[in-house]
Amino acid sequence: MASIRIEGLEKTYPGGVKAVKGIDLEVADGEFVVLVGPSGCGKSTLLRMVAGLETISAGALHIGERRVNELEPAQRDIAMVFQNYALYPHMTVFDNLAYGLKNRGFKRDEIRRRVEAAATMLEIEAFLPRKPRQLSGGQRQRVAMGRALVREPAAFLFDEPLSNLDAKLRVQMRVEIKKLQRRLKTTSLYVTHDQLEAMTLADRLVVLNDGRIEQVGTPMEIYARPASLFVATFIGSPAMNLIPLDYLHTNGGGDTATALLHDLPEGTDIVGIRPDDLHMRAPSEPHLVVESTLELFEAAGAESHLYVCLAGSDQPTVIRTAGQPPVAEGETLRFYVTRDALHPFNRESGKRIGDHG
Amino acid sequence: MQTKRMTFPGRWLPYALLAPQVIVTLIFFIWPSLQALYMSLLREDAFGLNTSFVGLANFRRLFADTYYLDSLSVTAVFAIGTTLLSMSAALLLATTVNRMLRSRNGYTTLLVWPYAIAPAIAGVLWWFIFNPSIGIVPYVLEMLGYRWNHRTSGTDAMALVIIAAAWKQIAYNFLFFLAGLQSIPQSLIEAAAIDGAGPVKRFWTIVFPLLTPTTFFLMVVNVVYAMFDTFGVIHATTQGGPAQATNILVYKVYADGFVGLNLGSSAAQSVILMAIVVALTVVQFRFIERRVNY
């Protein structure tokens, strides 16, 4: 087990395309860090650089105390779980798990002991004599996990390991990965584009955009205080609503509206509001009142989404609530927002404006 | 997957559509084969004046003939040698080209060209290169202390025909190996690298086993090629000599039938060849089709 220290890591491809533009990150021993971002943000490239599958253009990479920039993947003492599982199709499950141990010159009974222990942990003992093609997607995923953990590496690297599974299985495997990591306490770096997966798995979340880190923090910190407009819209579903401050100045009603809006920090010109923070009943605290037209109602079981259009503007906005909407589609809907729900941003810099939180 | 089935009205249209293929097969394949089968049971004098039915005598005679038995083993050496040489050279080239990114297409195009050259031309080409009096290779070998003469040495002659025959087939094998290599997911190689296997070990434990279907397929194709498609190469280089050292079965059919005018024996030999083709095809369909699913 070991920590992973990433200092100023950059990746420039031949031809000049810069995929990773200087990343600094420290993954503590035993920590589960998730890299999340849209496709093309450089998260997979970063992971592959840690694995040794991509060369490092600039910066330093330490796993434990060792600088591993120039080391071969095999020498870095890491294990990786691939998106397409990358199981060796011509080998049985047993041989798939044993391959890395054989290559490292382990004794036969030690290999057998470790493979069987891993198989028991993942409940795949029954599949050991089978070939990967005889397994379902979820079972293959377990074998891929098994291949990573038999080696007892210093760190696990996961490259979107759940994206080939169906929705139900994905949730199930997500929980299992989390449990397994808690139990083994192996340092883990996990890449995904799915923000829900990222939120639920991570001890610490790293939001990447365009080859740079946008924000690092615990999932709840990031959800509660997104550092930029990008993070604000990327994390959380449905995405955070962004409303120009001018609009609220002109159209925001209520006795306390002016005082409330003046309380926002200097430089704010756009305000983010989470769909759950738009209330349809007036709260007791000071609040804003906004008029809108209900355009579409979407029932999703435990929660429902109201797609509304703000009065006097074509600004689309989403409200998350439970149960039925108070009005029919096409009618006017009034909602209330408190000061705590307002996330102040500056449009030009794209950054959050420091506020009292 | 369910494919949509097209149905035609009328009874005659399907037959009419099949007819060209069936007619060609009948005239150019089935009829000559039956003729050969029939002729293999006859004995005819050199002038075609007298024909008599002799049953299986032609076959019995062949298997008692040391020349024919020698030709069988010569063919085996030639087929195995050609297959091994062309396949290993092609695999080496394919793995090398597969490592390239930008220049891959250029190399592929260049490497495929030899396949377009007629066997006889390829034979003449190698005949020149290995010509004991004017060729470049004997000249170089001479400097290294080896006197090359495929006109007197059976081993030299065999080496020459194997090289000439294999060279042409390399292009074909190369294409299949390259396609096979490219269908192996990159992540498998990466997983193996993380699992601590070096490049050589990765090749023999991951890449080569995954190429098995391609390798088996090519093996059959190459053996068939070496046994039946190399008449031109032999004819242009050694003509079966020296002292029958390169007289492979196909060449012997021609030599005995059209030069020696022993048509009955020649026909019997071609029937045996047909049996070998049938056997190889069965091997391909039975054994290999099953091995394809790893």
Quickly describe the structure:
The complex is a heterodimer of chains A (357) and B (294). Chain A has 357 residues and is of the alpha+beta class.
Which chain pair shows the most residues in contact? A-B, 24 and 20 residues
Give the overall silhouette of chain A.
elongated
Class per helix and strand makeup of chain A:
alpha+beta
Write down the Rg of chain B. Answer: 23 Å
Percent of residues in helices of chain B: over 70%
Helix content of chain A: 25-40%
Query: Could you give the order of strands across the largest sheet of chain B?
Result: 1-2
CATH class category of chain B = Mainly Alpha
Number of distinct helices of chain B: 13
Give a verbal description of the structure.
- The complex is a heterodimer of chains A (357) and B (294).
- With 357 residues, chain A is of the alpha+beta class.
- In chain A, 27% of the residues lie in helices and 29% in strands.
- Chain A has helices spanning 43-51, 93-103, 108-122, 137-149, 167-184, 195-201, 219-224, 229-234, 245-251, 257-262, and strands at residues 4-12, 18-27, 32-36, 58-63, 66-67, 78-81, 155-159, 187-192, 204-209, 212-217, 241-244, 270-273, 287-300, 303-310, 316-321, 332-338, 343-345.
- In chain A, the strands form 4 sheets. In chain A, strands 6-7-8-3-9-10 form a 6-stranded mixed β-sheet, sandwiched between helices. In chain A, strands 2-1-4-5 form a 4-stranded antiparallel β-sheet, with helices on one face. A 4-stranded antiparallel β-sheet of chain A has the order 15-14-13-16, with no helix packed on it.
- The longest helix of chain A is centred in the middle third of the chain and has 18 residues, at 167-184.
- Chain A is elongated.
- The two termini of chain A are 37 Å apart.
- Chain B has 294 residues and is mostly helical.
- Chain B has one domain (57-289): MetI-like (MetI-like fold, Orthogonal Bundle), CATH 1.10.3720.10.
- A two-stranded antiparallel sheet of chain B has the order 1-2.
- In chain B, helix 2 (57-64) packs across helix 13 (263-291), helix 5 crosses helix 7 (154-182) and helix 5 (119-129) runs parallel beside helix 11 (231-237).
- The two termini of chain B are 21 Å apart.
- At the A-B interface, strand 6 and helix 2 of A face helix 8 and helix 9 of B.
